[in-house]
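Problem: given the chain below (548 residues), write out its structure.
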Amino acid sequence: MLGILVLSVIVVFIVGYFTFGRFLVRHIELDDSKPTPAQTINDGIDFVPAKPQLLLGQHFSAIAAAGPIVGPVLACLWFGWLPALLWIILGAIFIGGVHDFFALIASVRHKAASVGEIVKKYMSPLSHKLFLIFIWFALVYVVIAFTDITAQTFKTVSDGSNFGSAVAASSFLYLLLAVIMGFLLRKGADFNITTLCFVPILLFIVWAGPHLPAGLLNGLGAVSVKQWDVILLVYCLVASLVPMWVLLQPRGYLGGWFLYLIIAIGFIGALFGGYHIQYPALNITGLKSIDNGKFLFPILFITVACGACSGFHGVVSSGTTSKQLDKESSALPVGYGAMLLEGIVAVLAMATVMMLPKGDAILKQDPNLVYANGIARYLGLLHIDFSLALTFALLAFSTFVYDTLDVCTRLARYILQELFDWQTRAGALMATVITLLVPLAFLLFSKEKGYLAAWPIFGTSNQLLASLTLLAISVWLKKTNRNHLYALLPACFMLVMTLWSLFTFIAPFISGLLQGGVKSDMWISGACSCVLIVLTAMLLIETRKALR
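Solution.
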């Protein structure tokens, strides 16, 4: 039964939180008597103390996004559910959770400094600059992939019905609702009462989207994918510059409720829906996918991505979350706990594939539609109309991506400001514009569904960033006289998998250059892989010096 498997995985994650998570807390000696940067600086813009439940929702929705949905769905389809499931469980508990927790507490212990600043302190100025450039590249790829995925969601058509327009309309109402909530909380509104009022309104917005005037929905439906790409990038520009309390905190908190609700629906549907596992546990012959010939090693580890480990999480932890942590003990639920919750999201996303037989027509659609159809089936158990259920699932999906897009753009802005020492508001604007010009150029000139070309290199750069972050944390732990193997061993494993995958991208790129024929997609993956390998090699040399 599908439900028994999902329940077993959740139990494993709970045990992991209260055993290995608590072990990490004792190892790093969290101390609530030490004031956090959010308390000591508290500038009302970036440094704003947040209640743990508010910060958990904001952090969780920022790191979750499309990664633990698209990646696990693709991995399950390509290799079968068993390899993907094992990697999600082991990766989240022993690698991803360690990465996120240590990145958060290391930042808090260094005045909310980025991982790059920590590298500068414990390694070298050159390492600092290399690391910042690497992070910026990785963040740009997140923006590219997730902007286009959201734009595709706004154009979703299923069984002849245009669901995308309703999702787009509900999305804008959701953002407006978040801004109103932010202003009310800023004016002193009671947090619990505001939550009780705004969460039902959020659900009403889901219902309202498909019921808006036909003229408005038709107008939204006329917007092309490329136009949506531009609109979303403009949103990223604005959202990354306004104070945290205006949009990021309330939007992240409301998005967190969407995530919690989706987790509950997925859990209840899998447990009580009576679904059986129909998709094969292994879809490989030897170590290659039966369907597309991709190798299990290393492709599995860069495809699942955020569901097991993500370098982007470390940037969020040390970029926005560390500036809002109210006390050190909150690092366990916010840092480690959120990673395990993301693992659950990944498993529930896989369940929407596992309950279907191989060859089902739904499995030929894009990953977001496979996922949304599964959630809609679960809601059908409650006698909710399929069209409303599918709209809800697609809005939840786009909400996850929103939560990453604006955070990611803000983080990339921080990186460029740190790299060039642009500390003014004009510098913030310049850094944001430069960051968004690259995704704009890529998305305008790429073919339809450009995210498919960006996804492999996104996954690789993301996982490679995680391994480099773990290496930096290892240096910090060693130089503060702590056991650094908890970070170093996972770093080595991730480094091997990601470098291996980079060489698989470079080989056909070089072959194409020698033969005089390189496709556009190959240029993207091959050239970027070369840049990433050079940056990685230089950082490894600097890390070796620091560890010695």
